[in-house]
Amino acid sequence: GTTSKSVDAAGEMAGKATDAAKEAVDSTKNDLKDEATPEATRAKLDAMAQTTLSQLFAEQPASRELFDRSAGYAVFDTREASFYVVAGYGRGVAVNRGTNTRTYMKMATAGAGMSFGIGGFDSQLVILFEDGGKFAEFVARGVDASAQVGTITGEDQDQLALGYTEGKAVFVLTKKGWKVAAKLTGSRYWPDEELN
User: Fold this and answer.
1) Integer angstrom CA distances of residue 149 from 26, 72, 73, 160, 172
2) Dihedral in degrees, nearest 10, Cα atoms 138, 140, 143, 144
3) By three-state DSSP, how is residue 81 classified?
4) Do residues 158 and 180 make contact, with C-beta atoms less than 8 angstroms apart?
5) φ and ψ at 178, to 5 degrees?
6) What is the tens place of the pLDDT at every residue in 4-50?
7) From 148's CA, which of 3, 57, 163, 174 has a CA 20 to 30 Å away?
8) Inter-residue contact 49 to 102 (CB < 8 Å)
9) 16 exposed, middle or buried (CB, 10 Å; 0-12, 13-18, 19+)?
């Protein structure tokens, strides 16, 4: 009777949530899809990276000094859907500042994801690498770590020193402004074989 109906209703609700999450991830992949040619896709990612860096430097001038001292950087455009399970997807480019070598990459999040408690939104992610070893390790193996996050506004900015933590400085642009993360969060990064 009643127990059976409750179980059926819960199952139906979970199914709908799963379907909605899948649709959101599918539409995200479509938003970040390849252009007609690999060259056009690389150009799109390069333009996104330049626009995001320009915005970071304009809105957070102290980040420019960190960038100037960095051995390399990575910029990702991410989309995230937050239902019962957070699923995120992104694409970007990692650049060795010494050689200007570009490695185009993909990213995926699960669990806590990149939302930092702000719900499911699109965002840009900038990672600065203090030395060439950390940069090379990121490109070769990606990262997967937990995050500590703070918003870069008002008093919070004074409390959260802009600098490198474990060889990385991480900035996330959300609809609510820039956030800084001491570490990356539950994300996996890997080279995009179609673009490299």
Assistant:
1) 28, 22, 19, 9, 10
2) 180
3) strand
4) no
5) -75, 140
6) 554 454 444 434 443 444 444 444 444 556 788 999 999 999 999 99
7) 57
8) no
9) exposed
